[in-house]
């Protein structure tokens, strides 16, 4: 025992020497004071826990810092303007949400309000307080956008290059200063001004950006600590779910090799897919299963007196034509021009209310208005940054947000193959529970409706059955070579040849709707 203890102590000493000799250095890029205020104490905490890590902060202009990151001269970048270019080798993770603060002259009518909303800023002269001189940063575009979404364009009386200049302008009576962050920790009130927090429907989010090739074990530790700290900052008294479901969603979208599909990462690949798909779609026919789901959607929004509806990703119109019947104005948004041409053609053929179409991704869509209802079903398979997409729905909807997806339970014959033959299956990792938990972590308690559905899946010849019934095998070719006869024997138990000469299989599954009222 003494010998073992002595060896253990020697190993511990050697590991300590190794850590001291192998220090990993991280350079973190920041462009705004609030980034420094947030990350600096956290990096000190990490350094105390992991003595082998060293951190250096690099300040600069956002574009220059991004270029340094791409060149490998930065380890990590804190940014509020993420670049959605995962194909370029970048990983982008949500860090925390900022607030919006106002410095109000003491004599202003705003100073006496206990709760300050965006609508209260109509006609008020505003001073946009620049962050280190970056007056055209993403944060201020965000402020313009959320103001327009509630029906007005902000009256900007002046711009300020820094915090001090903004405060001087407030003292001189030029207006109310707007800061896209919580400034209460480093700016103090005095008799001539008051600091207020704005209750806004959309708040800027901060992101951590890094190169995938730089993802070491130590980097993962740093990211995990920073993200947990950001979640604690955002949680606002809610239960801690331990995991960030926005990040788990990103993992769920990855294929088994850890990459994203081409359709997810390449807009043109998605456009080309729908071009080929819609070429085969000559007539409009609502899918039988969609009749039940569409009825459930209309039931959810009944009684809202919805005038305007925005549908995201309408596909071939399973819900579109029914939605057109219950509103005055329907707008369909999709990245595919072929989808939108099909929707327009058949809405005219069926005599529906004129449908507006917008050819755009939801992530890129902007509008100077709100819609009574925003709806999307089975359209989230490309939305890598799902939390930001849901936040956008919440602030652009006036009365109701409805999202959903089919819960594609694995077919029974696959489970039998797995149990009897030990085959490896490719399970769909996406599920509605991510919607519920991401919304919960946003402070939204959503309603959930689960609808039992079924499909009659049929094929004209047996080869088509085998092709379809083995598509979820992880290594189809090898499994068919080894277990081909047994796999086909299992399939024959489920795909039954009927009088029409086709092989039929009844697939039972469920559809889900997740819905909430914005602002609740």
UniProtKB/TrEMBL annotation:
Belongs to the LysR transcriptional regulatory family. Signal peptide: none annotated. GO terms for biological process: methylation. It holds the Pfam family Methyltransf_25. GO terms for molecular function: DNA binding; DNA-binding transcription factor activity; methyltransferase activity. One of its GO terms (cellular component) is protein-DNA complex. Residues 21-220 form the LysR substrate-binding domain. It comes from Murimonas intestini. This is Methyltransferase family protein. Keywords: DNA-binding, Methyltransferase, Transcription, Transcription regulation, Transferase. It comes from the Bacteria. The keyword Methyltransferase applies. Residues 309-396 form the Methyltransferase domain.
């Amino acid at each position: 025992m003494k010998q073992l203890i002595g060896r253990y102590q020697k190993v511990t000493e050697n590991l300590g020497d190794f850590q001291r000799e192998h220090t990993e250095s991280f350079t973190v890029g920041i462009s705004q004071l609030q980034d420094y205020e947030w990350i600096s104490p956290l990096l000190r905490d990490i350094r105390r826990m992991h003595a082998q890590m060293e951190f250096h902060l690099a300040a600069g202009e956002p574009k220059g810092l991004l270029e340094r990151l791409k060149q490998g001269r930065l380890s990590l970048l804190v940014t509020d303007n993420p670049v959605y270019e995962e194909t370029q080798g970048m990983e982008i993770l949500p860090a925390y949400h900022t607030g919006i603060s106002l410095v109000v002259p003491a004599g202003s009518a705003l100073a006496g309000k206990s709760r300050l909303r965006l609508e209260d800023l109509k006609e008020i002269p505003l001073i946009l307080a620049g962050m280190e001189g970056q007056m055209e940063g993403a944060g201020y575009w965000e402020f313009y956008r959320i103001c327009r979404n509630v029906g007005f364009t902000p009256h900007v009386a002046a711009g300020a290059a820094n915090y001090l200049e903004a405060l001087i302008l407030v003292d001189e009576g030029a207006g109310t200063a707007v800061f896209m962050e919580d400034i209460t920790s480093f700016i103090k009130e005095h008799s001539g001004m008051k600091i207020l927090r704005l209750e806004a429907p959309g708040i800027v989010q901060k992101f951590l950006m890094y190169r995938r090739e730089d993802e070491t074990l130590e980097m993962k530790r740093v990211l995990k600590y920073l993200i947990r700290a950001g979640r604690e900052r955002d949680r606002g008294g809610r239960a801690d779910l331990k995991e960030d479901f926005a990040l788990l969603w990103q993992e769920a979208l990855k294929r088994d090799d850890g990459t994203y599909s081409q359709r997810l990462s390449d807009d043109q690949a998605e456009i080309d897919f729908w071009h080929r798909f819609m070429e085969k779609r000559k007539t409009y026919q609502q899918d039988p299963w969609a009749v039940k789901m569409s009825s459930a959607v209309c039931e959810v929004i009944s009684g809202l007196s919805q005038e305007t509806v925005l549908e995201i990703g309408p596909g071939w119109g399973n819900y579109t034509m029914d939605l057109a019947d219950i509103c005055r104005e329907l707008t369909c948004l999709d990245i595919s021009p072929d989808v939108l041409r099909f929707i327009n053609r058949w809405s005219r053929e069926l005599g529906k209310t004129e449908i507006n179409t917008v050819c755009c991704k939801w992530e890129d869509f902007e509008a100077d208005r709100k819609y009574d209802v925003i709806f999307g079903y089975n359209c989230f398979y490309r939305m890598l940054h799902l939390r930001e997409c849901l936040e956008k729905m919440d602030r652009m909807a006036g009365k109701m947000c409805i999202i959903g997806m089919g819960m594609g339970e694995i077919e029974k014959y696959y489970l039998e193959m797995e149990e009897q033959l030990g085959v490896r299956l490719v399970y769909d990792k996406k599920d509605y529970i991510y919607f519920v938990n991401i919304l919960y972590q946003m402070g939204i308690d959503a309603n959930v409706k689960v609808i039992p559905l079924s499909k009659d899946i049929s094929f004209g010849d047996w080869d088509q059955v085998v092709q379809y019934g083995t598509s979820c095998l992880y290594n189809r070719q090898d499994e068919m070579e080894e277990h081909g006869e047994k796999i086909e024997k299992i399939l024959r138990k489920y795909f039954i040849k009927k009088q029409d000469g086709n092989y039929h299989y009844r697939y039972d599954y469920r559809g889900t709707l997740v819905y909430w009222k914005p602002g609740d």
